[in-house]
Amino acid sequence: MWRAATTLLGLLSLFTAEVVIAVVFRMGLWALLPGIGMAGLVAARFMGLDRRENLPRIFALSGVFWLAILIGLTATDVLTRHMVIAH
Amino acid sequence: MAETGIQYESPSHEAETAQAGMWLFLASEFLFFGGLFLVWTIYRVTLPDGFAAASRHTNIVIGAVNTVLLLVSGACLSAGLPAVQSGNGRMFRRILSGALVIALLFLALKGLEWHEDLNEHLFPAAHFALSERGAGLFFCFYFVATFLHGAHMVAGIVLLLWLLRRARSEPVASLRMPAESVTLYWAFVDLIWIVLFPLIYLSGRV
User: Fold this and answer.
1) Distances (CA, A) of B198 to A41, B37, B99, B111
2) Angle between helical axes of A54-79 and B11-46 (0-180°, round to 10)
3) Is A85 part of any domain?
4) What is this structure's pTM?
5) Which range of residues forms the domain containing residue A70?
6) A42 DSSP assignment
7) Which of A42, B88, B141, B149 has CA atoms 20 to 30 A from the CA of B110?
């Protein structure tokens, strides 16, 4: 119960930070950073990656690894092309 | 206590296999949603003005309330696992019921938000309200992503109902494995929304 409560408190703090960054400071893209922190907190605490045995960690890291390849290869294509948008 | 299948050496071996299976499924789901996030990133880079303008037309209040609801439901289910381990069936059933109510509230608010969006002609089809280049693509992403997330929520609700039914008829200590798997799935649904929320509602507020 204590573990879930402290995690929720951390998540709500990060959530408040991302909303303030976007709505008050108008820096919407920077709001993604607390969002990444929230995702990490959920993975560690609610999904138990911080205290499980190694096999689930391997699955989780594999998912991140293949996603990094997907995004990395696509980004090299998109970011190195000169795009002309027809009007 | 449920019997261990003949293919397993011990109950702990069976539990580890179930957890590994759920993690494998979630890793594939991560790639499934990852493709969607990739598409958002590409078009946010190539069509920044249209994406930002469209993002400002989303209902941030409903999005924020839904985020808090999901975070609370995830915490509830996470807090339910110790109740299963200690055999406290009453507490576990209460927690499951609370998470169910929150999940239904989330879907009701999402339905209300979609209703508003359709009334404001934000569906990217004929009579689309926004003229900025890329705004239609943003709302394509919005409707597809929120629909897929909602479909996963519905699957989660079915799992919660199934678990609640079993918790009423079986000793709760025998439900440790399915309770852990459902909690894991629900946390993943939380995680996807946590990524979607800033992409949809916050990224355009610049």
Assistant:
1) 16, 12, 23, 19
2) 20
3) no
4) 0.91
5) 2-79
6) I
7) A42
